Amino acid sequence: MTNEKVIMLIEAKIEPQRRAELVEAARQYLPRVRAEPGVEAFYLTVRKDDPNTFVFYEIYRSRAAQDLHL
């Protein structure tokens, strides 16, 4: 069905020296993404056992909303 929600969970391991760069980029990026049509949730967190592994949790109203984001 074309109107089913799309839920994504993505882990991204980064190089320790680039951590601050990613955090700053996320601060600027996340409000814009959350305001996109069809984005129901978009969270970024860090694994407790590895501060260089970031976890993105995304919920889109539909595949079309996800496609618009990409």
Please specify the SSE layout and strand pairing.
Blueprint: E1 6-13, H1 19-34, E2 39-47, E3 50-60, H2 63-69
Antiparallel strand pairs: 1-3, 2-3
Question: If you had to describe this structure to a student in words, what would you say it looks like?
Answer:
There is one protein chain. By secondary structure, the chain is α+β, with helices and mostly antiparallel strands. The chain contains two helices and three strands. The protein has a single domain, classed as Alpha-Beta Plaits (2-Layer Sandwich). Helices cover 33% and strands 40% of the residues. It has a three-stranded antiparallel β-sheet with strand order 1-3-2. Strand 2 (39-47) and strand 3 form a beta hairpin. It starts with 5 loop residues before the first strand and ends with a helix.
